[in-house]
Amino acid sequence: MASLARNAEASLSKLLSRPWNRASSRHQPPATVSATLTRKKPVEDATLDLNSIASQNLDHAHARRLVRSAFTHLQQQLDHPLYKLVPPGIRTEEWYEINFKGQEVFCKSWMPKPGVRIKGSVCFCHGYGDTCTFFFEGIASQIASSGYAVYAVDHPGFGLSEGLHGYIQNFDDLVDNAYEMFAKIKGRPEVRGLPSFILGQSMGGAVTIKLHLKDPSEWDGVILVAPMCRVSSFILIYLQFYFILNRLHEAVFFFSKQLNQVSNN
């Protein structure tokens, strides 16, 4: 441990000794700091035309939709079990809805193969670095093969939905958007009146939790995968206090039992 501490201290001293880290220095940062401004690396196994499409600014939905359209065939050829083990007969549909802010929101569904009775609906909220049309494609197909209708939307500013890429001005806007979109989806004829479940991953887990708290009666179940949340410090204090009281109760019960045995003897 002592050697680790010395190494850490030496590394920190070396870092702080760089001229560009000193407030009084006029030196510019090393060239490596500006490496993020260099041109994007070309996509392997992609043509010059595809790389030209991929290198453009993806701040707005039009460019993101163009890239998605151009790379769909490459995505389906990825050497990954989620794509290689897709069950046959899954039906998909893509469309856009207009949300309360006037934005086009991308929606997609995965349905069981024809003739399979639908058991219920599963609505998916994706995470910050994701969309509903990448790896979730394979997951949705697996769930649909079990008899569930699966639906997902790209949050505004993500994937194929309108909005500045990755920009969230107000987190509650994501929640309100998902609430509105999923209300429309659950009213579709194929799932109306059936049990409905909501699945949230990472940031989408936080959206899912807030959606459920907004109206718990809307969902028959909630599924969270690595949700973006933490246990309140108040709850942690309460649990610690409960643990102490529980152990104290056990100790009092033990000594009471011992005293009863002594008195009986």
TrEMBL record:
Transmembrane segments: none annotated. Residues 118-247 form the Serine aminopeptidase S33 domain. It comes from the Eukaryota. This is Serine aminopeptidase S33 domain-containing protein.
